[in-house]
UniProtKB/TrEMBL annotation:
Binds 1 Fe(2+) ion per subunit. The gene is LOC113094538. Residues 219-230 have a biased composition (Polar residues). Residues 79-213 form the Fe2OG dioxygenase domain. Its cofactor is Fe(2+). This is Nucleic acid dioxygenase ALKBH1-like. One of its GO terms (cellular component) is cytoplasm. GO terms for molecular function: broad specificity oxidative DNA demethylase activity; ferrous iron binding; oxidative RNA demethylase activity. Keywords: Dioxygenase, Iron, Metal-binding, Oxidoreductase. One of its GO terms (biological process) is oxidative RNA demethylation.
């Protein structure tokens, strides 16, 4: 996908999806090709840094939700500043990695999952530590804090629901609500919901939210001291690896 293509990805995709229904053998829409998106301070996969020069305002609703979830877990004042959305199709996986960085690790990492179920492997402080496997279902929130903040983890596979029962109940129907200006829940048109529900029947979306700067901290001015994080790899059967999301050799999972 060229860097120009992701512009208006929703609009470009929904018209095609509505017209042709994305049957087998049809060229994939941008929505189906989408693998990840960054929010707030955009993570640079090459330099493995965050920088103040590459920033877009963090979505307010997600900021507010993250603040509330963190506070409920004993982390008041959490300031959501960076996010990664991972879009998993039924054959996607995410390589083993650690979200290590020069960030303030006393701040938790929040992870929200929607759509199809994933197998999540939580390892130890070393890659070779024996992992604990768990299901991550739609609506699950994982908070990695304290010692678990720096544990290796991976998503080896997506478990698609059996045919006929493909959408988790909470996503099963369109939420009808009168949108208020300050409301966290906004209404969605029936047409848009049809596309969302079609997409979520075969996909998983995971959002991880991070605080980049500790309270009172600012970005150092020199490039050498950009805040950095480790990288990870997401792969899909039968397609080339996303080169921007690398993992160290020998630790790739299912491709
Ligand atoms: O998809 C998940 O549950 C994990 C995502 C993750 O580890 C990451 O984005 O760093």
């Amino acid at each position: 996908m060229s860097s120009e293509e992701p512009e208006n990805i929703w609009k470009k995709s929904i018209d095609v999806i509505r017209r042709k229904g994305c049957g087998k053998g049809e060229p994939k829409t941008l929505l189906e090709k989408l693998r990840w998106v960054t929010l707030g301070y955009h993570y640079d996969w090459n330099s493995k840094t965050y920088s103040p020069d590459h920033f877009t305002p963090f979505p307010e609703e997600l900021h507010s939700l993250s603040h509330k979830v963190a506070a409920a877990c004993g982390f008041p004042g959490f300031n959501a500043e960076a996010g990664i959305l991972n879009y998993y199709r039924s054959d996607s996986s995410l390589g083993i990695h650690i979200d290590e960085s020069k960030l303030d690790h006393t701040r938790p990492l929040l992870s929200f999952s929607f759509g199809q179920t994933a197998v999540f492997l939580l390892c130890g402080t070393k890659r070779e530590d024996r992992p604990t496997a768990m299901f991550m279902n739609s609506g699950d929130i994982m908070v990695m804090s304290g010692p678990s903040r720096l544990l290796y983890h991976a998503v080896p596979c997506i478990i698609s629901a059996p045919a006929g029962n493909m959408l988790p109940p909470c996503l099963g129907q369109r939420l009808e609500t009168e949108a208020q200006d300050d409301d966290i829940i906004q209404s969605v048109s029936e047409e848009d919901w049809d596309v969302c529900s079609w997409y979520m029947q075969t996909s998983r979306v995971n959002v991880t939210v991070r605080q980049v700067l500790a309270s009172g901290q600012t970005f150092p001015s020199s490039q050498a001291s950009h805040l950095s994080t480790d990288s990870c790899e997401k792969s899909e059967k039968g397609t080339p690896k996303n080169k921007k999301r690398k993992s160290k050799p020998g630790y790739e999972l299912d491709t």
